[in-house]
Amino acid sequence: MILETINLTKSFGLRKAVDNLSLEIPDGAVYGFLGPNGSGKSTTIRMMTALISPDEGEVIIQGKSVQANGNMALTEVGALIERADFHKHLSGETNLKMLARMDGTDMSRVQTVLDRTGLGARGKDKVKTYSQGMKQRLGIAQALLSDPKLLILDEPTNGLDPQGMKEVRDLICELASEGITIFISSHLLDEVQKICSHVAMISFGKLITSGNMEDLLKASDLLMTEVQVDDAEKALKLLSDIDWVHRCDAIDGILKVGIGMEKSSELVQLLVQNNIQVSAVIPKTSLEDLFISKLGKESQI
Q: I want to staple 66 with a disulfide (CB 3.0 to 4.6 A). Which of 59, 153, 171, 261 is the partner?
């Protein structure tokens, strides 16, 4: 494991922000760290990067304790914590050179990371002329200055428009393909499902579930299914009275039905017996569905 947290705990006054949290992040993974706003994600990341100290527990990076070794354990870690913040009246290149000089980083890395994040042609432009997506990519460029093996990103697509989100998502996938382990905190479940190989979900600072993304979705006791029928309104009325149907919505004439994994054939049989023609049944279980199945609708992200 490249990164582990062991019984990590942190309180602020009477509020326990992180509660006995243990995670294992495999080398080479793109690891999604999920939870509603206020669930303890940023607090966990601040403990991972030695910005704050835990009340109990520790963080291990490449076999070294962050709490015992401080910055010595972070030499091959790059981090973007919350929104990237730069001197807007200066160029992206100048901002990165200032940061490289402070850290003693080889100046040749500046152009390398600008090119790597797709900003090579805009490096000499002032940051105030950048889109929000470009600013986030500049933040990732800053995190890459140290040529890290582990990249920690706190809400990297938060506040971006769809184009900006795609730019950052594509960049993360490219970096992962080069062998960099990436730990991403987010409350955007759909974004995480598109790029992550592993995931952990927390709520009120406690771990709810974690593991390989594909395995977790397959093991979910809730199967979300798209059902194409000839009369969606009739089907919706029928299914709303069935106790083993946990969720049913009709969107653009297509049903989204939440059922137990063993109920698929019974669902189709019920619809057909009530003279509702079924033309397609498509499994569509998502991270959102998994999260709701673990915590209930009141805990939706």
A: 59
